[in-house]
Amino acid sequence: MYSGVSRYCSAVPYGIRVRWYAARAARAPSHLQTFLAQSTDKDQLSTTFRGKMFELQTLEALSDIGMELQHVGGRSDGGVDLRGIWPLERVKPNVIVQCKNTKMGCTPDHLRSLIGAMAEHRNNAIGVLATVHHRHFTRDVISLFTSSGTPLALARIENTQLESFVFNDAAEQLLQQLVITKRFDAYGNSKTVVMFPK
């Protein structure tokens, strides 16, 4: 069973606890804004620039659902681009994120690398493999993802928005059936909602 970000307004069922997250506008300048302001003289088409920008976009998107992450990516990052904690009401798992902004999309090797990077946190951590919104996860990635006993999530990011976010069974068990969705007002503005069943 997968939980994910929905593009449609939905009523919050009775017996579900809801937690809203503040809009990004109320925050101090983001790591992404600082990076872009300091990169005006850089080659914005280089893979290094695009990779770091995607890592920071992913950081912002996952911060919108309450994750508290630090950017640790670099040449020798050991497969970890973002690291932190997700301080939820019922559980506070460590989070390890690998970001892939590649032309060919994510491969099972990317997912295996993430699982390996999580070795020291297996009991209380979730690994997130993030890619750009127009890349889909291959059948082989999905197969490894669903069969893994390691808590994992797959994320697709568009700019700084979480386009989709799904958990495997191990992650759903760790996160106690957490549900993430978007709620829309009459004007089409959305808020991210994180819910737990009672």
Portion in helices: 10-25%
DSSP summary, beta strand count: 9
CATH fold assignment:
Trna Endonuclease, Chain: A, domain 1
The description of the largest β-sheet is:
6 strands, mixed
Radius of gyration: 16 Å
CATH-defined architecture: 3-Layer(aba) Sandwich
Write down the overall mean pLDDT.
78
- The stretches of 5 or more residues where confidence is low (pLDDT under 50) are 1-26
Q: Can you characterise this structure?
A:
By secondary structure, this protein is an alpha+beta fold. The chain has one domain (16-197): Trna Endonuclease, Chain: A, domain 1. 25% of the residues lie in helices and 28% in strands. It has helices at residues 31-37, 47-63, 108-117, 139-147, 169-174, and strands spanning 16-20, 68-71, 82-85, 94-100, 125-132, 152-158, 161-167, 179-184, 190-197. The protein has a six-stranded mixed sheet with strand order 2-3-4-5-6-7, sandwiched between helices. Strands 1-9-8 form a three-stranded antiparallel sheet, with no helix packed on it. α1 (31-37) packs antiparallel against α2 (47-63). Mean pLDDT is 78; it is low at 1-26.
